[in-house]
């Protein structure tokens, strides 16, 4: 290794998993310099494949809930499944994973009548807390968690009563924002996080009221994360738009329609500017029969525990812990992820995807979770 050029060594390190990069940085000063350079960290984050997050229920010790990730390829090799974090489920203080963005997880913490939001990078083990919003006796909905590229801040868009607020890692207080009249988002972070693409967030579509009988028209709400403004765009022309999950696939917006029990239709946005969608694939399903605790999704609320995500190798992961399959767009073949659908594994598919990042944010702190009143473990 000592005889290799620096560029070659950096290129090799760039292709390692995040945990391995952290270990490599301890080898020598030169490698430490490579693995802490901001341009290296940004390039490494771009190369990381996103993975589907699973809730794993544990019995040992005080920890009862863990977050694991599974690659979109659905590799059943035990080494491919990796633990991010684990934490207790208590009746007094509740933690809910709301969203995932650029390697950062957003948790909502509720304790009595108080509400707070915590950000965590489980790879660098850094934490941040968003500005407090106080008591939450009035109606409150969280709609978007995103990275604001001009400032480098992580921001949370929420509505409290009739007011819209933005909580930011770079601000001490919530900031009020004006929303255009008629702005309406049907999906909050609890039900369906928006999908990021090209600096914009896209919420799942809904059928337009009064559409003709011969064709179906749906529309999606879009939020520009730079200008922080809303607009609408055309959604896939499916009659079951409220059963659609959006995901990003090789730089394009894609949609999985779970409206039919026998199959899942895959739509792709071929022309973003004109909103032209095309149905490219139909994947046969094999849900568990009626009589189990959870059956195939019957309404939009059931999609909370259903995955739809793709990678750069043509793999699309679809389904839940009752039927989870990987469909390959190139070979047009599907296979079941047995390590998830077997009942003894005691896991639940989440709606979140995670992509590891070693980028350290100035507003985050590498501190003990006890400082935030938490009892978390990384194993």
UniProtKB/TrEMBL annotation:
PROSITE patterns from the UniProt entry: FBOX (PS50181)
Database matches in SMART domains: FBOX
Domain of life: Eukaryota
CDD domains reported for this sequence: F-box_AtFBW1-like
InterPro entries per record: F-box-assoc_dom_typ3, F-box-like_dom_sf, F-box_dom, SCF_F-box_component
Domain F-box: 1-44
Pfam families tied to this protein: F-box-like, FBA_3
Protein name from the UniProt record: F-box domain-containing protein
Organism encoding this protein: Setaria italica (Foxtail millet)
